[in-house]
Amino acid sequence: MKKLLAVFLVCVLTGCGTVGRSDAYSLGYEQGKAFKELGDYSKVIDSYDLSGDSSDDIPEVTPEGIQEVCAEFWLINGITAGLMNSTENKNEYLKGCKDGSN
């Protein structure tokens, strides 16, 4: 019952089912772009080498890594945006994420 109530609340708050397929791509594109920018920012942080120990550097952000993270984020982002969990929406999201991270 709690699970059903949670899903209902998410749908009410996000307009569940009102977001179209192109929105899945746009959502993925923005997510991929954000992850790429995060990777660029991590290089700036690492350049300061505050600890003097390069072993604690932030790992390099790669397109493959971004794709893996986007696949994990699909559930959260899809629900939050009110996207139906379909193969088509997920593929559009992942394609957008890949394009946004390039």
Percentage of β-strand residues: under 5%
The coarse overall form would be elongated
Distance between the termini: 42 Å
The total domain count is 1
Characterize the largest beta sheet: strand count, sense, and whether it forms a barrel: none
**Helix fraction?**
over 70%
User: Overall pLDDT, averaged?
Assistant: 76
Q: What structural category arises from helix and sheet content?
A: mainly alpha
Count of helical stretches: 4
Show the helix and strand layout.
Layout: H1 2-14, H2 21-48, H3 63-81, H4 87-100
Helix pairs in contact: 2-3, 2-4, 3-4
Structural account:
There is one protein chain. The protein is mostly helical and 102 residues long. The chain has one domain (20-100). 73% of the residues lie in helices and 0% in strands. The chain contains 4 helices and no strands. It has helices at 2-14, 21-48, 63-81, 87-100. Helix 2 (21-48) runs parallel beside helix 4. It is elongated, with a radius of gyration of 17 Å. Mean pLDDT is 76; it is low at 1-20.
Features:
102 residues, mainly alpha, single chain
In short:
This protein is an all-alpha fold.
